[in-house]
Design a protein that fits this description.
One of its GO terms (molecular function) is transferase activity. The chain has two domains: about 260 residues, 3-Layer(aba) Sandwich (Rossmann fold); about 90 residues, 2-Layer Sandwich (formyl-coa transferase, domain 3). It has a six-stranded parallel sheet with strand order 3-2-1-4-5-6, with helices on both faces. About 40% of the residues lie in helices and about 15% in strands. Helix 1 links the parallel strand 1 and strand 2. With about 400 residues, it is α/β, with parallel strands linked by helices. The protein starts with 19 loop residues before the first strand and ends with a helix.
């Protein structure tokens, strides 16, 4: 795989160079943590089931290589080894690798790694400096600990799904994406970096325990304090919000949509000027007036946007510094000059796909001196077996062949 052809042929070392991560998790949350670490220089070894690998390889649009586009994007910068953790010989090899690692990422149900002799106590015994990230649906303890969990379930249990959708409609999953997985992966990365800093200072590793629903619950602004304060159960607010007006999504004459957010009186005054409706600015100058006459205010904004193209609405809003943005499809994003200028789309030529270009989201966040990078897309299954087992476990070619024959790798 060839990275961005404009990239420096000898790029500077990244800040996490020298950190070794064993990623034996599946799908998105904990593997996303490992991918973030890999973007900033960590050596990430993806440990997968022999023969089948991570089921995420088959999630989404498949490529000619037999892996999905989602896999190519989200397993970036990783090496792949195959290992049967259920086999005692496989568990022994994993413990050998853990001795030489800094981080382990896993997402099996509580007790599963312990059953294989690979739990927290087992691994810290061979490497006291080890940091272990454990992601599950509900955390390592509590009455729901053994329940299976996915992002959609986390959105529901964590309180987000109840807030999504139209007020008179069913609750929906925001964007039908695995948002809770990615959020948990971000929190996992924060936890790992904090724990690594502690290990560096003290020589002691620690275990990080995250339930998917907890990441979702953490980002619901005033939901918890408001309920405790006055008993309010907030529900779905559709395309608007109850606290500001106009503050929502508005259709334009060409069928495209814009988002407009007027959270204070000055912003609404600007919008009234953009609409050439000074009367609205005078009649509804205060937020209380706008909230009391929400239907009339939002109706006037809708009538305006529906008589102009999205480009015209955006031009008028931006001229008056009204907070507004296009509601982009992915096709819009690929044509957006700001995405291009910021380098948000990383283009890679993938040799294993016959040199075809693959476009994936670029690294976030951007660091001034040591920016992360995408050096490779998701690896083929077991491509690193010989090199990695030889380096970390000292296996010879004959031993590799024996382990392969027995289904251990």
């Amino acid at each position: 795989m060839t990275a961005d052809p404009a990239a420096d042929p000898a790029p500077a070392p990244l800040p996490l160079a020298g950190v070794r991560v064993l990623d034996c998790a599946t799908f998105i949350a904990a593997p996303y943590t490992a991918a973030i670490l890999a973007e900033f220089g960590a050596e990430v070894i993806k440990v997968e089931q022999p023969g089948t690998g991570d089921p995420f390889r088959r999630f989404g649009t498949m490529t000619d290589r037999g892996d999905s586009l989602a896999w190519l994007s989200e397993a970036r910068n990783k090496r792949s080894v195959t290992l049967n953790l259920r086999d005692p010989k496989g568990a022994k090899l994993f413990r050998q690798m853990a001795r030489e690692a800094d981080v382990v990422c896993e997402n099996f149900r509580p007790g599963t790694m312990e059953k294989w002799g690979l739990g927290w106590e087992d691994l810290r015994a061979v490497n006291p400096r080890l940091v272990m990230l454990r992601v599950t649906g509900y955390g390592q303890d509590g009455p729901y600990a053994q329940r299976p969990g996915f992002a959609r379930i986390a959105h529901a249990v964590g309180g987000l799904t109840h807030l999504a959708g139209m007020p008179d409609g069913p609750p929906v999953t925001p964007g039908s994406t695995s948002l809770g997985d990615y959020m948990t992966g971000l929190y996992g990365a924060v936890g790992v970096l904090v724990a690594l800093r502690h290990a560096q200072a003290t020589g002691k590793g620690q275990m990080i325990d995250i339930g998917l629903y907890e990441s979702v619950f953490r980002v619901l602004d005033e939901l918890a304090p408001r309920y405790a304060w006055e008993g309010t159960v907030r529900g779905a607010e559709g395309v608007a919000t109850l606290n500001a007006c106009p503050h929502g999504h508005f259709e334009c004459a060409d069928g495209a949509w814009v988002a407009i957010a007027c959270t204070n009186d000055k912003m609404f005054a600007r919008l009234a000027r953009a609409m050439t409706r000074p009367d609205l600015g005078e009649r509804f100058a205060a937020v209380a007036d706008r909230l009391a006459h929400r239907e009339e205010v939002e109706g006037a904004v809708t009538a305006w946007t529906r008589t102009h193209t999205r480009a015209a609405v955006m031009e008028a809003c931006l001229a008056e510094e009204v907070p507004a943005g296009s509601i982009n499809t992915i096709a819009d994003i690929f044509e957006d000059p700001h995405f291009a200028a910021r380098g948000n789309l990383h283009r890679a030529v993938e040799a294993s796909l016959g040199g075809r270009e693959v476009v994936v989201p670029n690294v976030v966040p951007r660091l001034s001196d040591t920016p992360g990078r995408v050096e490779s897309l998701g690896p083929e299954l077991g491509e690193g077996n010989a090199e990695i087992y030889g380096k970390l476990c000292g296996l010879t070619d004959e031993e590799l062949a024996m382990y392969r024959k027995k289904g251990v790798i």
